[in-house]
Design goal:
Radius of gyration: 23 Å
Distance between the termini: 80 Å
Number of strands: 12
Low-confidence stretches: 1-35
Shape: globular
Number of helices: 5
């Protein structure tokens, strides 16, 4: 009887050790971490990404609206994106946007305007209770109505790895950029984050890209 009991206890101990050593399956939160920073809604033809306010650009100028945090320009934008720009490019394709791919690196000093599907871009954050146009969170030394286009530029995005998601003037690398300002415009025109509209530095916001009607 004692021998049987000892064998049972030994078996239980062995099973406990093996269960404890077995690799853990990622939790739902861990598995969805990358997905939670971007939501692709094909029905409403929109892509939502998370970003953080970079208060540095309330007082310093930049031509970068949203840049993925892990890109080489990740700390050079009004909003620090939490989504990889290459994945964002593919999400725009998924909602039916068509890339312009008309701006090359040679065009960057030639006054070319980016083409591609027109996108309405909005920003919101917890407690705001509404969406506000991206144009409202930017100030400029020469204000113009914002005209965001799906520039494309996937291959250059892969090559340069800048992380650029939304540039404030036409760009050969950014996935989207502002056609209201031709390439090279930022040499003369200064852009800033609007501290009168945006929440405090480090606040998480949602940026919404929606195919214009």
């Amino acid at each position: 009887m004692k021998k049987t009991l000892l064998l049972c206890l030994a078996a239980i101990l062995i099973l406990t050790v093996f269960v404890g050593c077995a690799p853990k399956s990622p939790s739902a939160a861990e598995a969805n971490t990358s997905q939670e920073t971007m939501v692709t809604d094909t029905s409403n033809k929109e892509v939502k990404i998370l970003a953080e306010v970079n208060g540095k650009y309330f007082t310093e100028s930049t031509r970068h609206g949203v840049v993925f945090k892990d890109g080489s320009n990740g700390e050079k934008s009004v909003l620090r994106g939490l989504t990889d720009e290459k994945e964002f490019h593919d999400a725009l394709l998924a909602i039916g946007a068509e890339p312009g791919n008309n701006v090359t690196l040679d065009c960057m000093t030639k006054g070319v305007k980016v083409e591609g599907t027109k996108l309405d871009v909005f920003v919101t954050w917890e407690g705001l209770g509404k969406e506000i146009p991206f144009n409202d969170i930017i100030t400029s030394s020469e204000p113009r109505p914002m005209d965001i286009r799906f520039g494309g530029n996937l291959e250059r995005a892969k090559e340069k790895n800048t992380g650029c998601i939304l540039c404030l003037d036409s760009c050969a690398v950014g996935i989207t950029s502002n056609s209201s300002y031709e390439t090279g415009a930022s040499k003369e025109i200064k852009f800033f984050g609007n501290k009168e509209v945006l929440p405090a530095d480090g606040t998480t916001v949602t940026v919404i890209f929606r195919i214009a009607q």
